[in-house]
Amino acid sequence: MTTPQLVVHRDKELMAQAAAARLITRIVDAQSSKGTASIVLTGGRNGNGLLAALATAPARDAVDWSRLDLWWGDERFLPEGDPDRNVTQAREALLDAVPLDPKRVHAMPASDGVYGTDVEAAAEAYAEELARSADHGDVPTFDVLMLGVGPDTHVASLFPELPAVREETRTVVGVRGAPKPPPTRVTLTLPAIRAAKEVWLLAAGEDKAQAAAIALSGAGEIQAPAAGARGLARTLWLLDRPAASQLPRTLYPPATA
């Protein structure tokens, strides 16, 4: 696994704008080299902030949106269209404003879909969809997989000490009893996350400072799931100054702040 790199921005707005510009570059590079790009989105205020920044980015139209596959790292297991679903928020922030191929938008199942309230069946179905899109292995080679970092160090819906973060074989699991509402969710596991070329962890705000410090101090992934989120080629933490406030200054170059 790769060693985390850190980039610290002045504030959350600048962080979102810089991350959006960085993502556009990665997508365009991937499409230039292999025709398509595959990105895993994250929800929450930082993930949605990045998408909103991307929607207004000057270089937005450099992306061939019809050749972009979008996946999700996790989803709240709620009815289709529920405002708390990550896909609903992503559509409002960006997706409805760009010419995506609907067949390439891989939303996780909703609780009123064909699997009903069976979250395990929904998770298995998403795992099968990932496998069908993979050239080899169980998941596609994601160009960039983005994750928000929770104040408790959770990423996706992998919460400290819960069974999902201990999963070693399955790529997608159902979560029941999550400590953050809603309690029922679908999530990628660490094995799926680690199949990405690049993993980006987004953290902005003073409430994320302790989580960033714990995850980057050598904590174990069971106790601090963010510590286990690593990419094959790169692991990048994108933070604002408040989120980086408890980190040793030696962890990131002065120019990045």
Automatic annotation (TrEMBL):
<dbReference type="InterPro" id="IPR006148">
    <property type="entry name" value="Glc/Gal-6P_isomerase"/>
</dbReference>
<dbReference type="InterPro" id="IPR037171">
    <property type="entry name" value="NagB/RpiA_transferase-like"/>
</dbReference>
<comment type="similarity">
    <text>Belongs to the glucosamine/galactosamine-6-phosphate isomerase family. 6-phosphogluconolactonase subfamily.</text>
</comment>
<dbReference type="InterPro" id="IPR005900">
    <property type="entry name" value="6-phosphogluconolactonase_DevB"/>
</dbReference>
<comment type="pathway">
    <text>Carbohydrate degradation; pentose phosphate pathway; D-ribulose 5-phosphate from D-glucose 6-phosphate (oxidative stage): step 2/3.</text>
</comment>
<protein>
    <recommendedName>
        <fullName>6-phosphogluconolactonase</fullName>
        <ecNumber>3.1.1.31</ecNumber>
    </recommendedName>
</protein>
<feature type="domain" description="Glucosamine/galactosamine-6-phosphate isomerase">
    <location>
        <begin position="11"/>
        <end position="237"/>
    </location>
</feature>
<keyword id="KW-0378">Hydrolase</keyword>
<dbReference type="Pfam" id="PF01182">
    <property type="entry name" value="Glucosamine_iso"/>
</dbReference>
<comment type="function">
    <text>Hydrolysis of 6-phosphogluconolactone to 6-phosphogluconate.</text>
</comment>
<dbReference type="GO" id="GO:0017057">
    <property type="term" value="F:6-phosphogluconolactonase activity"/>
</dbReference>
<dbReference type="InterPro" id="IPR039104">
    <property type="entry name" value="6PGL"/>
</dbReference>
